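Why does residue order matter? Because the sequence determines the fold. Keep that principle in mind as you read this record.
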Amino acid sequence: MNKYAVIFTVAALLLAGCDKLSPPPSHSQAWVAEGKTMGTFYRVTLASPPPDALVGLQEQINQVLNQDNHELSTYLQDSVLSRFNQYNGAEPQPISSAMADLVSTALRIGAKTGGAMDITVGPLVNLWGFGPDKQPVSMPTQSQIDAARARVGLGHLRLSEDVNGQWLQKDLPDLYVDLSTLGEGYATDHLAALMERRGFTRYLVSVGGAVISRGLSPQDKPWRVAIQKPTDREVDAQAIVDLQGHGISTSGSYRNYYELQGKRLSHIIDPATGRPIDHKLVSATVIATTAMEADGWDTGLMVLGTEKAKALAQQQGLAVYLITKTDRGFETWASPQFKPFIIEGLDDPREKH
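Structure:
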């Protein structure tokens, strides 16, 4: 997974159903597994599981994450995605049904956002110094941007299925696909599916900024998560939500950036302009039935900016929470579908509906 394409984030404050921010539950009440994967961190918390039900679980968690990494990594040269990116032909290449579902979701959301969420935007991300290439010492020229944009576009990618399986095809030899925009949600859903197969009905799972839950916490209360305030100077909650068994993901422009020639440049690139976004929307959170669905929408909404993101959320009936920087401070907006999930955070007088 491209560690530079970070999806920021439902805050690192994962709440175990408490009314206020508090430490995670003790290991006497919960079983916790955590570690690194895909250039980020994962965490699995189970509420009061029977000890004998945990046999072999850590090994299976590792297997799920290793398999996802083997499919989606752009750093592993032998991953399924890396082999596809290295292939310069036009013949369809085989992929798994799970990866086909991810690509299908990306293409659908990409179309609905008018191309704002684009899994082929990698050349532009690299050009602006947020990929494996080094940070530029000067602003890219318009000709460099145009050249990179010529290698970008969802229209160059085709997903198909037949009796022999699922296939991915490109009509541009050097098209570069990066699935990290949805990868954290993809892995989160797979870990949740593992918990279901093992018979666990009370869990909170996260990979990076994508989170999903089911059932109650060790305190027999709903699992709750905090949406982080959009600042790189503190870790505090802007709002607290009860997931109610749903997935959640947040994209933000307030941490992964650098300054060049006196200008602050975000890691979120607008495919339409080929440049980092420069509007005032700083955080977009989405709640959906799966973590992957939420993970797919948040970046596209961030690219669109506040007003277009609001309009699309209302048109599509999405559960969306936006934070916008204004001259008066941060203003928040929640779609009607998001509001039932909120526990705390809408008492700010600057909130706009």
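Confidence is low (pLDDT under 50) at residues 1-28, 346-353.
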